[in-house]
Write a structure and sequence with these properties.
The protein has 572 residues and is an alpha+beta fold. The protein is 30% helix and 23% strand. Helix 9 packs antiparallel against helix 11.
């Protein structure tokens, strides 16, 4: 009869016998071997777990952001401050929105079709989009109601928003289709479909007299990724903080963050102090000028964000003999060192620009590069008869190369003007600077077109560079925004054609041709596009935004932000 070998772990009594048999030294190595064995088993188990699982975002946690200013209207029609607009974007959905690179994407729209040569847009809605109160679904009637409320002056006091929807007809076709009829084709129109949608069942019985005071303006019901929860107020009823919770029934990617809270501050200094005391997890800066205060901190991520915004010095050639000369305008372009401007004003948080189309924003990218060349600038002036006098200022036919520049009285812009004055002085041009408040600038300079040169900003229409309002000749006079009084028939035709062209590649080509014409005419000097900066605690993960349309859109990918993680089995 064969015997089988049986293996078993020693019993406590046998271990005691080992203790009595082994010497002290032998005991040491015996128990050391056991510890090594156990440690190896644990290490192998951990290695196996790590190798066959991966860390992924999990639901939970609270993100706290600090902002300067308090909310008044968390209502997409009434919102005008950055705080109001930011909260509205988190609470309310829109037909279209933007991704984290500034490209248009669907929100509650399933898809849309362009008809009638660009004069009609048919938008089909997603099927299961619910309001936060869960009483009904979002339908085409809610969209129509919102647009008609925007168009009604008894409700909407925002002239810019109202003007966006002037002469546009909207109607519902069933529960899930909305038709927009435009008076003429306009290719960038989809950018207008990013307005927040109001719930008709909440607002339809609110009169214009009560529209500004309804409790729903601070306790909103929307259909966005986050739901209003509560607001902490001071003794006078002013909000101190505002808390949102995740919408677990959200129609798109459900948020990982359980809560998002906003703490409100009276000044930027108080906000910075709150971040240093870890009372908030993040803050947003419109300029990178102060970003260096957080660079190098191990607990902080400093993220630069590109916006569709650029600054330029535009020339009014009707008010200046030197600026009416093309060689002067070209020389000033060549004498402008944009990299120095960006370094000294924005600590590098800006991009140099040489055109009305930005470099690498959305679907469009400029084909023009800045050309800084002092030697070429001086040569151009010299060859065209502009000679330096005893003061170092160039003259021609008794006319000094002296220019008056008006700028808004903002720190970054005044500094820009000062640096430009120093740079242009090197080629013999004298720049006289006047800094004024915005109201004064518009009333006394822009409206009557009383300036020789003006330092001003231009913004895209959403994510589209459409420059028609800023450079088309029909907008030369007030209230138009063509402050360069630019007038070129070929450019006018290209801008008009591009604004109606639905084919993206054809529009790109028209803009490229326009860039060539603008560069040749030199109606001004394009300078830079400042970056905004997000300051966040490094424990906030998943924030991958690189470009936004404006500050309130900084939460476009907040559904992907997370604080907590879990491990799951890796997919093969």
């Amino acid at each position: 009869m064969s015997q089988q070998l049986k293996l078993s772990f020693p019993s406590p009594s046998k271990i005691k016998r080992i203790n009595s048999v082994l010497s002290r030294k032998e005991k040491f190595f015996f128990y050391l071997a056991i510890l090594v064995l156990l440690g190896s088993l644990v290490a192998w188990a951990v290695h196996f777990y790590i190798s066959y699982t991966e860390s992924v975002a999990d639901f939970g946690g609270e993100y706290i952001e600090g902002v300067v200013g308090r909310p008044i209207f968390v209502n997409p029609i009434l919102a005008s401050s950055q705080t109001d607009l930011t909260l509205s974007h988190l609470v309310f959905s829109s037909l279209l929105t933007y991704d984290n690179q500034g490209a248009l994407i669907n929100d509650v729209a399933q898809d849309y079709q362009v008809e009638e040569d660009g004069k009609r847009y048919r938008v089909n809605l997603k099927e299961n989009v619910f309001w936060h109160d869960q009483e009904s679904k979002l339908t085409a009637e809610d969209v129509v109601f919102t647009v008609q409320t925007i168009q009604d002056p008894s409700f909407n006091k925002n002239p810019a928003l109202k003007n966006d929807w002037k002469d546009i007809q909207v109607k519902a076709e069933g529960e899930r289709t909305v038709i927009f009829e435009l008076p003429e084709a306009y290719a960038p129109f989809p950018n207008r479909l990013t307005f927040g949608i109001l719930p008709k069942h909440i607002f339809q019985d609110i009169s214009p007299e009560k529209f500004l005071t309804t409790p729903f303006n601070l306790e909103p019901i929307g259909s966005g990724p986050f739901v209003y929860s509560e607001a902490e107020k001071d003794a006078e009823g002013n909000p101190l903080s505002y808390r949102l919770i995740a919408n677990t029934n959200y129609h798109a990617q459900k948020p990982y963050l359980e809560k998002v809270t906003f703490n409100f501050y009276d000044s930027q200094e108080n906000l910075f102090e709150a971040y240093d005391k870890k009372q908030v997890n993040g803050l947003f800066l419109s300029s990178g000028a102060k970003a260096s205060d957080w660079e190098g901190r191990r607990d902080t991520n400093v993220k630069s964000i590109h916006l569709p915004l650029y600054f330029s010095v535009l020339f009014n050639q009707t008010k200046s003999v030197p600026l009416a000369k093309k060689e002067v305008r070209e020389a000033l372009n060549l004498a402008t060192d944009r990299e120095t401007l960006i370094r000294e004003i924005f600590n590098g948080y800006a991009s140099p620009e040489a055109s009305l189309v930005l470099k690498d924003f959305g679907s469009f990218s400029s084909r023009k590069d800045p050309n800084f060349n002092l030697e070429e600038a001086e040569k151009k002036l010299e060859e065209n008869g502009w000679k330096k006098n005893d003061e170092g200022i160039r003259e021609k036919d008794g006319e000094k190369l002296e220019i008056s520049l008006v700028t808004p009285d903002f720190e970054d812009l005044v500094k820009t003007a000062d640096i430009l004055a120093a740079q242009w002085e090197k080629v013999g041009a004298k720049l006289n600077i006047t800094a004024v408040e915005l109201g004064d600038l518009r009333k006394n300079f822009i409206q009557p077109r009383e300036y020789q040169a003006i330092l001003i900003n231009h913004e895209y229409f959403g994510n589209d560079p459409d420059p028609l309002l800023f450079f088309h000749s029909k907008w030369k006079n007030d209230p138009g925004n063509n402050v360069a009084l630019y007038d070129n028939k070929d450019a006018d035709e290209l801008m008009t054609e591009a604004s109606k062209e639905q084919d993206l590649e054809k529009r790109k080509e028209k803009y490229a041709q326009l860039e060539d014409i603008i560069a040749n005419d030199a109606p001004g000097v394009f300078l830079y596009s400042p970056f905004s900066v997000y300051i966040q605690n490094q424990k906030i993960k998943g924030m991958d935004t690189t470009a936004i349309i404006n500050a309130p859109f900084r939460f476009v990918d907040i559904s992907h932000w997370y604080l907590k993680t879990t491990r799951v089995k890796k997919e093969k």
